[in-house]
What does this fold into?
Amino acid sequence: MSLIAGVDEAGRGPLAGAVYAAAVILDPAKPIMGLADSKVLTEARRDALAERIKQDALAWCIAVASVEEIDKLNILHATMLAMSRAVEGLATQPDAVQIDGNRVPKQLRLPAEAIVKGDAKVQAISAASILAKTARDAELVRLDAAHPQYGFARHKGYPTQEHQAAIARYGVLPGVHRQSFGPVKRQLALQQGQLF
It folds into this structure.
């Protein structure tokens, strides 16, 4: 039986926090009912499924690329790096990898295919999307506890009106906000008095 790892990411679009990726090899002997793209599940359902996946999968790994890596490499390359780290971190190495989206990380040393909308079509990718999303959401809840004025627990770092207003009011948080992203870059320029 060949082992296939599903891989997905969470957090490409937000202005704050690391980008997360997960890799999951499901156990055919322990099917998990209700797996779906994490975006269509409620938070409670995602959390419950994440626990089941961690308990019943043959192997799983969650990895990140930091805010600093995102700013240095750009979000696409940082996402590919996080995905590669997730696959490399699996306790059992798969025979092949299926990745949500239309790109395969160049760093991967295994046969791999990209599947557009894979998180809705392939159960292992759905499982990876759930692990990546729940882990990233947990990070944003921790950031919210440290910086409650920004509202991270509500908007999860996405560029909502509330978040952008908080950045304008309280400033850019070093190591938390992605300085290469437009709205953050503009706010930094304002803070430094060089509007462009």
